[in-house]
Specification:
The protein is built from twelve helices and 15 strands. With 382 residues, it is an alpha/beta fold. The chain folds into two domains: 222 residues, TIM Barrel (Alpha-Beta Barrel), CATH 3.20.20; 111 residues, no CATH class. Strand 7 and strand 8 form a beta hairpin. It is globular and about 70 Å long. The N terminus is likely disordered.
Length: 382
């Protein structure tokens, strides 16, 4: 079977597959009933997830919560209340933020102060570098994280270390082009296997991109051929760099070179023991970085993209994590009492206006917009 496609065809196929997986996941997931206009279940504490925020939108959310009597919980209070069916505590919710982006410090933190609201922030420790070491202003630094923790309004916990995707097969889905580099965040690009070791961040123009999945959810890792990647990258460099992609035949040229070398320059699958060590290192490094920079060990872990594999959950328990958070499609799996640590699903924050109360939005109005975003939910390599 031919595994190699044009990048446009591969991207279209990947989009269709993502949509199909999303629909299948929705059909298998038992979402909270308030999404359909029903009341909150007794003792229910909805959990919402933000990434980037803007001042107007976030203030609007907090105002909606304030008007309708919702109290934002700290993480410890939420975990202590889990499973309680008591209805005597009023309306409660948990607001979570992933990635520790600069917008949290610049926008969300002042807005939390203005409303006296609380939130939990999950930081990927690899990206929390000192300001002088950053090549952009996407993320916060450790000093800002400590300020958040000291504010009394924010619980700072772990979002793993690398926040990494890994290739899982040799199925080619495209090549790194200027348009794709502009479309995806820096850590939406899978970790690359190079002669100098693993590399995170945006790849060089022309780099082949293969089928990938989150490191902490994967069953294994495909180590691509560094020589094959270098050949594609060098072709682009010799042909004008970014200007090369303005040529109508750029894709055909890279594809021809790739096809001519792929039979000789082959990748390989990582050995199971080595892969288990890689997974363990991601959580061990997160633990160590928090101790070094925050003065405490994290006890809660928000998984990047989706709830992690059984292996990663077991490693998390050994590292001292006591709870884990996934995303909406993890609601069903999070209810499994046999998981190594308690887990919780989270809804994206754009569903928050469906909470019962004055000014409540309709499910149809939000769902219509969400359906149009299916193709953008994950990286093109998922």
């Amino acid at each position: 079977m031919n595994r190699h496609y044009s990048s446009r065809a591969a991207a279209a196929l990947a989009g269709t597959q993502r949509a199909a997986r999303s629909v299948a996941g929705i059909l298998k997931t038992h979402y909270p009933r308030f999404l359909l206009g029903l009341p909150l279940a007794r003792g229910e504490i909805p959990v919402f997830i933000y990434h980037d925020v803007d001042a107007v939108g976030f203030a609007s959310d907090l105002q909606f919560l304030q008007i309708n009597g919702y109290r934002t919980l700290g993480l410890e209070e939420f975990l202590a209340a889990r499973g309680s069916k008591s209805s005597g505590h009023g309306r409660r919710i948990l607001l979570t933020f992933d990635d520790a982006r600069s917008s949290f410090y610049d926008v969300a933190l002042p807005t939390l102060h203005a409303f006296g609201a609380r939130a939990s922030l999950f930081a990927p420790s690899y990206w929390m570098r000192p300001p002088e070491a950053k090549d952009d202003n996407l993320f916060m630094n450790w000093k800002q994280l400590r300020a958040c923790a000291e504010s009394g309004l924010v619980d700072v916990q772990s979002h793993a270390h690398r926040h990494a995707l890994v290739f899982t097969s040799d199925r080619l889905v495209g090549f790194a082009s200027p348009s794709l580099l502009a479309r995806y965040d820096i850590y939406d690009w899978p970790m690359r296997h190079t002669a100098a070791g693993d590399r995170l961040g945006r790849p060089a123009l022309g780099s082949p991109v293969y089928r990938a999945t989150p490191l902490l959810s994967a069953r294994g890792r495909y180590l691509e051929s560094a020589g094959l990647t270098d050949a594609c990258v060098q072709l682009v460099e010799r042909s004008g760099g970014a200007d090369f992609f303005a040529r109508p035949d750029w894709e055909a040229r890279v594809q021809r070179l790739y096809g001519s070398r792929a039979g000789v320059l082959r990748g390989e699958h990582m050995q199971d023991e080595e892969f288990r060590a890689l997974v363990a290192s991601d959580l061990e490094l997160a633990h160590a970085e928090f101790r070094a920079h925050m003065g405490y060990a994290p006890t809660s872990l928000a998984y990047p993209w989706m709830l992690g594999s059984r292996l990663s959950l077991e490693v998390a328990r050994r590292c001292g994590f006591q709870s884990a958070f996934g995303v909406a499609l993890d609601y069903r799996r999070a209810r499994d009492q046999r998981l190594p640590i308690p887990a919780f699903g989270r809804l994206k924050a754009d569903w928050l206006p469906l909470l019962p109360g004055q000014g409540r939005a309709s499910f149809i109005s939000i769902a219509a917009r969400k359906i149009g975003e299916f193709a953008k939910l994950q990286h093109l390599a998922h």
